[in-house]
Automatic annotation (TrEMBL):
GO terms for molecular function: tRNA (adenine(58)-N1)-methyltransferase activity. PROSITE patterns: SAM_TRM61 (PS51620). It is an enzyme of class 2 (transferase). Residues 343-352 have a biased composition (Acidic residues). This is tRNA (adenine(58)-N(1))-methyltransferase. The keyword S-adenosyl-L-methionine applies. Residues 144-377 form the tRNA (adenine(58)-N(1))-methyltransferase catalytic subunit TRM61 C-terminal domain. InterPro entries: SAM-dependent_MTases_sf (IPR029063), TR61B_FKBP-like (IPR054151), TRM61_C (IPR049470), tRNA_MeTrfase_Gcd14 (IPR014816). PANTHER family: TRNA (ADENINE(58)-N(1))-METHYLTRANSFERASE, TRNA (ADENINE(58)-N(1))-METHYLTRANSFERASE, MITOCHONDRIAL. The keyword Hydrolase does not apply. Pfam families: GCD14, TR61B_FKBP-like. Residues 72-125 form the TR61B FKBP-like domain. It comes from the Eukaryota.
Length: 384
C-alpha cells in the first residue's frame, strides 16, 4: 500500500509583519469564537468533561503566568491547519478596527482583544484559525528583513557556545536585521548589555526598528518593559576603536563577511578565556579565517567548527485517495481469536474514526527541509 499525505506543508515565509486594513469583505455569518465543542472536535478530543472542571480549567489556564488576555499592539501568529498540515501561517500586530485577511476568510481584529492567547476564531467563511502570541523565534523569522538573519537554530547554538549568562557584556556585528541582537538581549537580561555594530546605515535602521517593534509589542503583552540593553552603532567594526576603547566583553558574536579582517580590532577587547563565535556561510571562508589567524598570530585558538542540522518530520495518519483513513490489515487469526477480536472491534467503535493504533501513519523526514545555513566557528582568546 502506498502511504500518502493529503497536502504538503507550504514554506512559512509568506508574510512579514502583516497589518491588514479595515477594507474587508462583508461577513455573511459573522466570524465567531469557536465553541468548546468545536474546539474539542478539532483536536479529536471526545472525552466528556464536567462543566465545573471546565470552568476551573479556564480560570487556571486562560493565560500564561505573568501574561494577560490579548490586547492591542501585540504581535500574534495566525495559523490554519487542515488534516494536520499547515496551510498558512502569518504574523500580524493586533490593531483597532483592522482585519486579518487570509485565503480562508477575514477575522476582525477587535474580536481578538480580551481572548486567551491560544484560541480558535472563525473567519467569515467559517474556517477555524488558531491565534497565538508570536515567540521570539516567530518574530525573527517573520519580521521585515534587510540582510539574511542569523537563523534561530544557529542563534540558540551560538548562545550556548558563547556561554552567555545574565549580566554579561557582549559585542555583536553586524547588526544586520537585528535578529541575533534580540536573542542576545534576552540572554544577557536587564543587568547585561549588548553592543551591536553595523557598517551599513540602511541595515542599522532596520535592526533598530525591529528591536523597537519587539520591545513595544512586549510591553503590550506583559505590561512591563523588555530590557533596553542593546546599543546599536552605525560604523565599521574594523575602525571602531573610539566606541570600543575602555570596554571589555565576556563574548563576541560575528556574522559578517571576512571576519579575519575585524578580529584584530575585536580581540583586544575580549577578556582572556572569552569566546568569539563566528557565523560563516561558506567553508572556503572558514579556511580564509584560519589562514588569517595563522598569518597574523592572533591570541586565539579555534576550538570547534560545527553545523547545526535540524530535520523536520511528517508524522500523520495515512489517507486513501478519497480522504478516508487507511487501515491496517489485521493478522490472520485462528477462529476463536478472530471472534474475540471482532467483538472488541465493535465495542471500540466511536465517532473519531478507526480505533486507537488501527490506522497506519506517514512517518518520515519532511520533503521540504531547511538546508545549509552556516558553519559556526568557536574561537577562544588566550592571554598573550
Ligand atoms: C548577515 S548580516 C547579519 C545578520 C544579523 N546577525 C541578524 O541576525 O539579523 C551581516 C551584516 O554585517 C554587516 N557588516 C559587514 N562588514 C561589517 C563591518 N566591517 N562592520 C560592521 N558591520 C559589517 C553587513 O552590512 C550586514 O548587515
Amino acid at each position: 500500500m502506498q502511504l500518502r499525505e493529503e497536502k504538503l506543508q507550504e514554506p512559512n515565509e509568506e508574510a512579514a509583519v502583516q497589518i491588514s486594513d479595515s477594507d474587508c469583505l462583508q461577513q455573511e455569518n459573522g466570524p465567531g469564537r469557536v465553541t468548546k465543542e468545536e474546539h474539542l472536535d478539532l483536536h479529536h478530543a471526545a472525552e466528556e468533561t464536567p462543566a465545573s472542571s471546565l470552568l476551573e480549567e479556564k480560570q487556571v489556564m486562560s493565560s500564561l503566568p505573568g501574561e494577560t488576555m490579548l490586547s492591542f499592539g501585540e504581535l500574534l501568529i495566525a495559523e490554519y491547519q487542515k488534516k494536520n498540515q499547515l496551510e498558512f501561517k502569518t504574523m500580524f500586530q493586533l490593531q483597532k478596527s483592522a482585519h486579518l485577511h487570509s485565503s480562508r476568510g477575514v477575522i476582525p481584529q477587535d474580536d481578538l482583544v480580551g481572548q486567551p492567547a491560544g484560541c480558535f476564531r472563525k473567519t467569515h467563511k467559517d474556517v477555524p484559525v488558531f491565534i497565538r502570541r508570536a515567540s521570539l523565534e516567530d518574530y525573527v523569522l517573520h519580521m521585515k528583513r534587510g540582510p539574511e538573519i542569523t537563523h534561530p537554530k544557529d542563534a540558540a547554538t551560538m548562545l550556548m557556545m558563547m556561554d552567555v549568562m545574565e549580566g554579561d557584556c557582549v559585542l555583536e556585528s553586524g547588526s544586520g536585521s537585528g535578529g541575533m541582537s534580540l536573542f542576545l538581549s534576552r540572554a544577557v537580561g536587564a543587568k547585561g548589555s549588548v553592543l551591536s555594530v553595523e557598517v551599513r546605515e540602511d541595515h542599522y535602521t532596520i535592526a533598530v526598528k525591529n528591536y523597537r517593534n519587539w520591545r513595544t509589542s512586549w510591553a503590550s503583552r506583559r505590561g512591563q518593559e523588555w530590557p533596553d540593553n542593546v546599543q546599536f552603532e552605525n560604523t565599521d567594526l574594523c575602525t571602531a576603536s573610539s566606541i570600543l576603547t575602555g570596554r571589555g566583553f565576556h563574548s563576541v558574536a560575528l556574522n559578517l563577511n571576512s571576519p579575519h579582517l575585524v578580529l584584530p580590532s575585536v580581540l583586544p577587547h575580549l577578556h582572556p578565556g572569552g569566546i568569539c563565535v563566528l557565523y560563516i556561510v561558506n567553508i572556503t571562508q572558514v579556511v580564509d579565517l584560519l589562514e588569517g589567524l595563522r598569518c597574523s598570530a592572533l591570541p586565539c585558538l579555534c576550538e570547534r567548527i560545527i553545523e547545526v542540522p535540524v530535520r523536520d518530520w511528517v508524522v500523520t495518519p495515512a489517507l486513501e485517495k478519497n480522504g478516508e483513513y487507511c487501515t491496517i490489515e489485521a493478522p490472520h487469526l485462528d477462529e476463536s481469536l478472530r471472534q474475540k477480536d471482532e467483538t472488541s472491534d465493535e465495542s471500540e467503535d466511536d465517532d473519531v474514526g478507526p480505533s486507537f493504533r488501527s490506522i497506519p501513519y506517514i512517518a518520515r523526514p519532511h520533503p521540504e527541509q531547511l538546508n545549509h545555513t552556516a558553519f559556526l566557528v568557536k574561537l577562544r582568546k588566550f592571554e598573550s
